[in-house]
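Work Package 3 (structural annotation) set out to generate three-dimensional models for the target panel prioritized at the project kickoff. During this period the team completed the workflow that converts sequence records into discrete structure tokens, so that structures can be stored uniformly alongside our sequence database. As a representative example, we reproduce one entry of 212 residues exactly as it appears in the project archive.
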Amino acid sequence: MPKKETFQDLALTPPKGEQELWRWLYTELRAAILSGRLKPGARLPSTRSLAKQHSLSRGTVVAAFDQLLSEGYIRTQVSSGTYVAPIMPDQSLQASRGRSALTLPISKATLSKRARAMIHGIDVLAPSHSVGRAFRSYEPAIDLFPVELWSRVASRVLRHAPRSLYGNGAAGGYQPLRRAIADYLKRERAYVAEVGRELTEAGPFRKAADEA
């Protein structure tokens, strides 16, 4: 006997403009969960059923489900199906914050006189609550940073990295970086840097004009 879906007629707002369909479906299902239209513990229809109901590809529905699952809004049970999580991620976070506040002691540590003297006169910008807002010279577009691509590339590089990467290396630092710094100093600051020499008391830098 086939399993009966808990809802087949969930009203979803049609996608607007060029919005990606998986993102639209994720947003609609998340809104239904948060608004209470989908109750905690409610069983979601299968990806095939939901895809057929809204004329979507199964891959689109799977992508939306994966996003909801990664954020903790739904959970899966082997040979049973997909269900709305009994506790929302925001509620879990608030509960953990409350427990931490009760157990952590209040620190009485203060800055030393030397530290206070060092930071005297330095203006510290308040943390921004608008990540990704345009035209902030001191704040990159963090929301556009390709985190997943970066992690995959970093993982691949580390897997095939030579053993020398984990050693002490040259005392003067990474050779290509030293060469890039030397080129910059020559181009922008009119200094000539001898990359092959280690730093001495006099230093390996001299004005290009001195060489004339």
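The chain is about 40% helix and 10% strand.
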